[in-house]
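Hi all, posting the design record for the shared folder.

TITLE: backbone redesign
STEP: 1 of 1
STRUCTURE INPUT:
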């Protein structure tokens, strides 16, 4: 049932309450994912005794199912409503995680991977429309910034709780089984809430289609639109040169090439998470005043500056080449200060991305095709997260610390070039 407009004084309160509840349930679901995500490979390979073949099979089944489900889920979300597809995806995620709890052999593990993949594909093809339906259009950018923060903080908190639960456990397999049950249970409130966040009639208008026609655009017509094609390419590049590098490459670069202790690696990662929360008010006051295409281009610039701090830490810090060499004018305080500056600047770049990317996606796709556009963004993201870590690890395996930081900055420069082209193309498209 389509929600009717509320009285003028009550509308903001209702919209705010609905968004807060949605974010609270998303935080709980993300926390559940954090309970299990870092340990799934260990659980399948070692504790279930299925080895690398079983682990690889799980993630291959997940990737294949996610790809197929995203392609199908995009048009389905456009026709049936994003709330239905997101609820179906959340249910599949819960079922898939629950299946890992009693698993002992490969068949149930593979079935779990496929079910989780279906859940991810459907959920991320629809969640953009769900978040957009929970807020007025003027709060889109803030809403997607908050969503990015909530997701990251939830996963981080879940990982900490899981580490505490597993610390000193005599039977880690049994403990992990219960964590998968908890992960499945954490998805249930989110399923209920996204089902309730239904599109409002006043927002279900059909903007101009990518091909100029009145019908809902297809994947092909969306990609024929120059700005949309560049936006999808930017999503893949941002994942490749940015998000996967801070998760997979930078920790190894700091530890192996710069002799940074594991404690300080954790501190830098934690500083990035804390900075996301602390900088959000600034993001709202400053970043959101910029046009979305400009804000999107600012992100890679901030990432390049962040990687530059890492480069300076490698050059000026004590033993910056990882070999315990001579002091080049800095020391531990300089090195760690620059690495913390890296974490903060990178977080600022994340916020410019999160405040601009999905509002642009919504505006250029039109709400009649937001499911398809979200599916394309999800597929681009999956491509980036699959290819980014191997590329980053190849770089640090063949270059010294300074060269690795330079390569990461060059990658951010490539992402900026695409974002700048997107800005120019979007301006020409409007004219």
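Okay, here is what came back for every position:
SEQUENCE:
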């Amino acid at each position: 049932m389509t929600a009717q407009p509320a009285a003028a004084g009550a509308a903001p309160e209702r919209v705010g309450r609905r968004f807060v509840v949605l974010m609270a349930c998303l935080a709980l679901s993300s926390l559940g994912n954090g309970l299990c995500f870092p340990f799934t490979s260990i659980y399948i390979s070692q504790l279930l005794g299925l080895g690398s073949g079983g682990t690889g099979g799980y993630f291959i089944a997940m990737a294949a199912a996610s790809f197929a489900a995203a392609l199908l889920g995009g048009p389905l979300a456009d026709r049936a409503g994003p709330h239905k597809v997101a609820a179906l995806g959340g249910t599949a995620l819960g079922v898939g995680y629950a299946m890992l709890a009693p698993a002992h052999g490969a068949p149930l593990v593979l079935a779990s991977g496929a079910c989780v993949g279906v859940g991810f594909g459907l959920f991320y093809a629809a969640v953009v429309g769900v978040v957009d339906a929970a807020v007025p259009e003027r709060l889109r950018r803030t809403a997607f910034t908050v969503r990015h923060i909530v997701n990251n903080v939830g996963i981080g908190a879940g990982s900490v709780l899981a580490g505490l639960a597993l610390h000193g456990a005599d039977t880690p397999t049994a403990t992990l089984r219960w964590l998968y049950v908890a992960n499945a249970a954490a998805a249930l409130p989110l399923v209920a809430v996204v089902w309730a966040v239904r599109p409002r009639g006043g927002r279900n208008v059909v903007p101009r289609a990518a091909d100029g026609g009145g019908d809902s655009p297809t994947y092909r017509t969306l990609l024929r639109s120059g700005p949309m094609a560049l936006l999808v390419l930017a999503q893949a590049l941002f994942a490749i040169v940015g998000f996967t590098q801070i998760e997979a490459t930078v920790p190894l670069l700091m530890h192996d090439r710069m002799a940074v202790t594991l404690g300080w690696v954790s501190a830098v990662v934690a500083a990035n998470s804390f900075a996301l929360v602390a900088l959000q008010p600034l993001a709202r006051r400053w970043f959101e005043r910029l046009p979305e295409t400009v804000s999107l281009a600012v992100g890679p610039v901030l990432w390049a500056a962040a990687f530059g701090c890492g480069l300076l830490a490698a050059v000026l810090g004590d033993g910056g080449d990882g070999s315990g060499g001579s002091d080049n004018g800095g020391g531990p305080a300089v090195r760690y200060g620059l690495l913390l500056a890296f974490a903060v600047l990178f977080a600022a770049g994340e916020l410019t991305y999160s405040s601009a990317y999905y509002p642009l996606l919504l505006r250029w796709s039109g709400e009649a095709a937001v499911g398809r556009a979200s599916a394309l963004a999800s597929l681009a993201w999956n491509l980036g997260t699959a290819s980014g870590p191997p590329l980053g690890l190849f770089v640090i395996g063949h270059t010294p610390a300074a060269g690795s930081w330079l390569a990461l900055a060059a990658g951010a420069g490539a992402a900026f070039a695409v974002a700048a082209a997107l800005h120019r193309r979007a301006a020409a498209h409007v004219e």
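COMMENT: Residues 1-15, 202-214, 319-328 have pLDDT under 50 and may be disordered.
Let me know if anyone wants the other runs.
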